[in-house]
Amino acid sequence: MAKRYDAIVIGGGHNGLVNAAYLARAGKRVLVLERRERVGGAAVTEEVFPGFKFSMFSYVVSLLRPEIIRDLDLPGHGLHILPLESTVTPMFNGDYLAGWGDHDQSRRELYRHSPRDADAYDLFGRQMYHMAHAVRPILGMVPPDPASLSPGDLLGLLRLGRHFQSLGSEKFHALHKLMTMSAADFLDEWFETDVLKATKSASGIIGTFLGPRSPGTAYVLLHHYMGEIDGVFRAWGFAKGGTGSISEAIAAAARRFGAEIRTDAAVARVVVKNGRATGVALDTGEEIAAPIVVSGLDPRHTFLDLIEPNALPSELVEAVGRFKFRGSSGKVNLVLGELPSLTCLPGNGPHLRGAISISPTLEYVERAYDDAKYGEFSRQPYMDIVIPSMIDPSMAPPGKHVMSIFVQYAPYKLNGGWNDARREAFGDAVIDAVARFAPNIRSAIEHRQVLTPDDMERITGLSEGNIFQGELSLQQLFFLRPAPGWAKYRTPVRGYYQCGAGTHPGGGIMGASGRLAALEILKDRA
Ligand SMILES: Cc1cc2nc3c(=O)[nH]c(=O)nc-3n(C[C@H](O)[C@H](O)[C@H](O)COP(=O)(O)OP(=O)(O)OC[C@H]3O[C@@H](n4cnc5c(N)ncnc54)[C@H](O)[C@@H]3O)c2cc1C
Q: What pLDDT is attached to residue 288?
């Protein structure tokens, strides 16, 4: 007799796994169905070249919600975060700007560039801390629908209003500015050092099809400020064993609560009878029944691929059709025979255990966007580089290294489309741009993997290769993510839910969507 399940989760990305773990913890019999041969989605570790482990897509962690780490006892299931303490930005004039784990050291470094900015930096840090605290409760909240008069929504709006009121006018106004300004304009109000503004603004463009001068990017900057590791606000870390070990730890927790996880199991459609989900059909034709079906996929797949459009109201189909994905990021993973030597800081040193940001000036980053705006990959891209084998030696054999280069911009809709030649040309542009600051990089490379948004879509299923399952732009946040009226993890099909990063609060290895969706499902099924 076929096994009976209370819930099926489609997609074993980290949000799907978190969702399954919370449902199983509440006593539900849960089955996760993952299309690939491994779980994790964009958060995977793969041995791309034998003996070398790569966080193939997502590479650093900070946003993972502390309550999830606690509730699922992720450290007990193998999660170990190693700190990533510094960021170095090489400059065109041979100098550099560094931010270190040690506050005084960072202050001294900034003082070297501008005493005024060194003073402003502490105030800026304090304001970002307050802003992150102001937004943090919203991340853990199911978005109330402002157009609804239901008691739950009215209560949610009241709670939200009270929260904003409690901030006081100064913080509320600062928050409003952050939500609407460009990262460059916002940083201009604080600092005079261009390389500092360039490096800071870069976290405002990640995963968006926007430049640092585009309105809305100040919020994305804040989004990346929001992380917390071991209670240290804004710290970024590296998961020992690569990003896949985060997904593996969540999967182990889910299994421990009794969830079953099947890989190599692609769902072709959700079975709907009389307006209610009754299970799923795999691409092999196999059907599996369950009264709850949860999609961890992005909104395009959740609403337009897995479900017959006529099962949904036309406004929702249209809204999802308009939802912006517009992948803009690429990734280059390298095997190195020797460490890169930066012209500004030659040889080995603590800076190689942190991030290297290729963002020498604001104009450089904005011009990188200009290329993408007109359908080309950036000839001189913004890059965030880490050398994971310097942080966790188990990532590469002794004496060798792995390097991860996250790149903006590589537009999904490239003029003439992506093909093997364009992929390699993009890879060459990335290496040329690195070589400008680390000339030995070319001779150090033993193998390279170049991933375009097109590759990301093909491998992970992320529509248009958008790293966040849809842009984190203002019109796609909170009660608008993924569509007005459908931001509370439910769908018009009874028993069918959504839990991926395409829902509030959005992308990054956060797990928040998976958890909030599980809590809503359990509320419905109490
Ligand atoms: C290149 C890149 C770099 C990034 N860097 C960072 C970073 O450093 N730090 C950070 O916090 N975030 C980063 N992100 C973002 C972050 O990784 C994602 O936002 C997050 O992992 C999304 O998780 P998810 O579980 O919502 O969805 P996904 O990871 O998209 O998971 C969806 C899962 O569903 C599966 N699936 C698809 N179709 C089917 C089907 N029909 N049937 C069954 N299964 C299916 C997929 O294989 C996948 O496993 C990065 C992303 C990318 C792509």
A: 98
Q: Give me 245's structure tokens.
A: 């070990």
Q: Which of 57, 236, 264, 332 to mutate to test the pocket of ligand 1 (most atoms within 8 A of CB)?
A: 57
Atom of ligand 1 nearest to the CA of 510: 11
CA-based nearest residue to 423, from 457, 450, 458, 461: 450
3-class SS string, 273-291: ECCEEEEEEECCCCEEECC
List helix spans (H) across 398-452: 420-435, 441-444
Q: How many residues does the chain have?
A: 526
* Å from CA of 296 to ligand 1 middle: 9
Specify the pLDDT at position 227.
Answer: 66
The two three-digit tokens of residue 221, written as one number: 């900057």
pLDDT at 234: 53
Nearest CA owner, ligand 1 atom 48: 41
User: What is 344-358 written as a DSSP string?
Assistant: SS-SS-GGGGSEEEE
**pTM for this entry:** 0.97
- Averaged pLDDT for residues 211-223: 91
Look-up of token digits 């650093």: 60
For ligand 1, which residues put their CB under 6 angstroms from it?
A: 10-16, 33-36, 41-43, 57-61, 63, 266-267, 296-297, 301, 329, 331, 406, 456, 460-462, 467-469, 500-501, 507-509
**Cis peptide bond prior to 409, omega within 30° of 0:** yes
- So what's the pLDDT on residue 232? 54
- With the most atoms of ligand 1 within 8 angstroms of its CB, the residue from 206, 459, 503, 509 to mutate is 509
Which stretches within 99-243 are classed as H helix?
103-113, 115-139, 151-180, 183-188, 194-202, 217-225
342 CA distance to ligand 1 centroid (A)? 32
Map tokens 């009264």 to a residue: 291
Share above pLDDT 70 across residues of the chain, in percent, rounded to a whole number:
98
**HEC string for 222-275:** HHHHCCEECCEECCEEEECCCCHHHHHHHHHHHHHCCCEEECCCCEEEEEEECC
